[in-house]
Amino acid sequence: MSTTEMSSTEEILGRSDANDLDAILAVPNPYLEGTIHTVKDHADAIFTWDYEKGARPALNKLYEKAKNAQWNGETDLDWSIDVDQEELAKSAVTNSPINSQLDLSGTCFEKWNDDDWARLNVEMQNWTLSQFMHGEQGALLCTAKIVETVPWIDAKYYAATQVMDEARHVEVFAKYLDEKLSGHYPMNTHLGLLLDDIILDSRWDMTYLGMQIMVEGLALAAFGFIHMMTTEPLLKQMLRYVMSDEARHVAFGVLSLKEYYAELTDVELRERQEFAFEAAVRMRDRLLQQEVWERVGVPVKEAIQLTKMTPESEIFNQMLFSKIVPNCKKLGLLDASGGWLRQRFGEIGVIQFEDWVDTGEEYESFALGQDLQAG
Ligand SMILES: [Fe+2]
Ligand SMILES: [Fe+2]
Question: Which residues surround ligand 1, an ion (CB under 5 A)?
Fold first, then answer.
């Protein structure tokens, strides 16, 4: 394989240094105007005349599970629970990466009082749930595309159940935001660019890799973390229900791609590695939460640099990759092409998760009624 076929970081990310904060913050947000956003999906809709159900037993099993695991966001969640967002924001549970416990003298937070910190927490909560809602809509569109583009009947059947799951997820996050929180945020630039790139790609496996492996792998870890930390009973219940579905979705990606990637050439695998790396960096960039800092009126770059100095925040951001990295390993993506992705994941500080449990079978333990293991 010649190096001329490989893409540079500049070509993959639009900047030569993955960690260039000025370049990350300078990317314009194309999602601020209008009610709809259109993306070309460049894909053929595929019929198959091979209707043999269960030709892929692992996918068939997942499909049968999914049929019995449907829930109703309107009636299975207790929407009568009153959420006092301000009270919640003042409590010990906070998703703010920096807070008044640190020595912030000489920084833009020097004069902040308890009300300012409480407001920051409220905004972070609105932002976080808004991005989950947008990401869920991305999953809805991606999975509908998979129904059309995947050539296997067992995968079409399973993907159809995931379309319903994702509709329900968009619905419950939107309802929670509207009825229990205090305002939406628009789509984050980096999350939106990633979702656009996933949908734009003509190759059916790239939808899976971008959505089921990368976006949903991160979501499963993030939901698990927030589910464990939050004291708000409705959010806890809602995340528990959503996670029972998400674990199946990530398994769907692992089980489908494992078969397909076993047959790809090294050059083809390298393209998948580059796509996985791009997705990882875009998701890391989205976690900078730049829109929140803008809204609370502090210098964005300074706030982000202070965030990076907090060990808790670094640990949290790394933990979000605890599902993605073992799943990439299981698919053979870490070590193909001379270990290219292993090296990149090392550079962004997440390779240490490679031997954690992958999500090919783990979904059974996420089923409703099971006690979730911590972590
Ligand atoms: Fe979802
Ligand atoms: Fe999902």
Answer: 136, 139, 166, 169
Give residue for tokens 């269960």: 54
Q: How far is the CA of 86 from the centre of ligand 1 (A)?
A: 27
d(CA 272, ligand 1 centre) in Å: 23
Q: Which of 248, 244, 273, 246 is nearest to 261 (CA)?
A: 273
Helices 233-261 and 216-229 pack at an angle, to 10 degrees, of 150
The torsion angles phi and psi of 332, rounded to 5 degrees, stand at: 80, 10
**Tens-digit pLDDT profile for residues 184-225:** 999 999 999 999 999 999 999 999 999 999 999 999 999 998
pLDDT digit string, tens, across residues 107-143: 999 999 888 888 998 999 999 999 999 999 999 999 9
Residue 47 within any structural domain of the chain: no
- Whether 8 is covered by a domain: the verdict is no
Whether 104 is in a domain gets the answer no
Q: Tell me the CATH number at 144.
A: 1.20.1260
Question: Does the residue 59 lie in any domain?
Answer: no
CA distance 354 to 351: 6
Domain that holds residue 322: 113-375
Token pair, residue 296, equals 């609370």
| Model confidence, pTM | 0.94
